[in-house]
Amino acid sequence: MKTIDIVSMPPLKRFGYRLATGVKHLPQGLRQMSAAVWRGMRKRAAGIRDAAKEYVSMFRKGDVRTRLSYGIMGTGCFLRGQLVKGLTYLFLQAAFIVYMATFGLSRLALLPSLGKAVKQEVWNEKLQIYEYIQGDNSMLILLFSVLTLFILFAFLGAYFASVRTAFRNQELMENGHRPPGFLADLRHLIDSRLHVAFLTPPIFGVFLFTILPLIFMILIAFTNYDSAHQPPGTLFTWVGFENFKNIFWSNPIQSQTFAGIFRWTLVWAFFATFSNYILGMILALMINKKGIRFKKLWRTIFIVTIAVPQFVSLLLMSRLLADQGALNVLLGQLGIERIPFLTNAIWARITVIVVNIWVGIPYTMLITSGILMNIPAELYESARIDGAGVLKTFSKITMPYMLFVTTPYLITQFIGNINNFNVIYLLSGGGPLSLDYYQAGKTDLLVTWLYKLTVNNQDYNLASAIGIIIFVVSAVLSLIVFNLSASTRKEDTFQ
């Protein structure tokens, strides 16, 4: 299809065409992505190979003091007058050796099995009582093993930095220069490398409090850490991809639950996102229409729901819509049959979508109001001169402008609704419960099901696998939609 034909399409039809085209070419995109990953891995391998060659080359070219740094960190600095730097490297090496000898190596040795010694009850003849012998803790073994690997990689970085520093000092002295002292290094750090000084602590914090727990939780997905394997009383072990197999096909009840919840999650995310977006935009258009009086008053009225904490509003609505809630009591008094807002699967799903519209429209209205006020008035004047009506003006000016600006917002909202815990859990609790589902109800999303699996049933392995799936789905959908949008393709040309 020619570009001019695509451009002339209505916005929604054009988006659908590009989405279908993107899905059609998805296998090719996946191949390209795999090729890019492979090229990145090869580049990284080449970098490691070059670093190894540099390591050997510096040893061959180095003098005695430089070569001593290969065995004892900081020697090349200490023997060339850099006392503080040399002692720092030496302290790091000593601390690493002590840590690995007393703790780290024992944990890494248990990593393949995640523990062997089980908690035992032994009879003490002398005291005439049963004593408990503490066994291994699989969770702590896995956690500290990952931490030890991080420490190992950090030490290797410090070790190579020590070798390079020793060789650099050797080159300086061979060229008649003196290696910089502590004060000179400090001034250099504060001056030209100030960014390194400020970024180093946050980077360590990110690794310690974000990346480390993330890797730990990912690894849990490849174990049998569930209610039947609770350390320290019971050890858990590696099971490979068994949890993913159970979710997709091996375990009938779990696979059926995942399929049903996954479909509902996508349906919920779609309606929760676009109902708020469309209705919020219509509301903003009505308020911003010329001739409407008291615009500020109308905006204030519609954003009152924002002033009340969302969890309060949702808990209030859950009580109001309960089988014995105020609304059903009122319907009963009027002689109308009570409506199972939260106890019937279909009614519950409709209810959570409608309530989400009520709490979500004000945010969309505020965002779209700001955008509408920034659309150049000349565009509308030109359209009216050319004889364009209201619908034509909306489809050719307002809607394209809105979609261009708000596409990133729509993507974030869609992903946010996939992981929208508050609305579902506080309003319906994931119910009504179903015997066809494993530890889940008919309005549960993947994220609320994950929560129930961990808190109620201690199926941490299954929950971790679901978390990985949520991440993959969210990432793939975000990348596809964002790359198909005009926000990406016309970022530098849209006016």
CATH class of the largest domain: Mainly Alpha
Fraction of residues in helix: over 70%
The total of beta strands comes to 2
CATH topology of the largest domain: MetI-like fold
Q: Summarize the helix and strand pattern as letters.
A: HHHHHHEEHHHHHHHHHHHHHHHH
Shape: extended
Physical arrangement of strands within the biggest beta sheet: 1-2
The structural class is: mainly alpha
Q: List low-pLDDT spans.
A: none
Rg to the nearest angstrom? 31 Å
Count of helical regions: 22
Provide the residue-averaged pLDDT. Answer: 84
CATH architecture of the largest domain: Orthogonal Bundle
- The structural domain count equals 3
* Terminal residue distance: 25 Å
Approximate strand percentage: under 5%
The fourth-level CATH homologous superfamily of the largest domain is MetI-like
The largest sheet is:
2 strands, antiparallel
Structural notes for this entry:
By secondary structure, the protein is mainly α. It folds into three domains: 1-44, no CATH class; 62-240; 249-489, Orthogonal Bundle (MetI-like fold), CATH 1.10.3720.10. It is built from 22 helices and two strands. The protein has helices spanning 3-7, 11-24, 26-61, 64-71, 75-78, 83-110, 138-174, 182-191, 194-220, 242-250, 252-288, 295-302, 304-307, 310-320, 326-333, 345-372, 377-385, 390-418, 421-427, 446-455, 460-484, 486-489; strands at 120-124, 129-133. The chain has a two-stranded antiparallel ribbon with strand order 1-2. Strand 1 and strand 2 form a beta hairpin. Helix 6 (83-110) packs antiparallel against helix 7 and helix 11 (252-288) runs antiparallel to helix 18. The longest helix has 37 residues, at 138-174. The protein is extended and about 90 Å long. The protein starts with a helix and ends in a 6-residue tail after the last helix. 23% of the residues are buried. The mean pLDDT is 84.
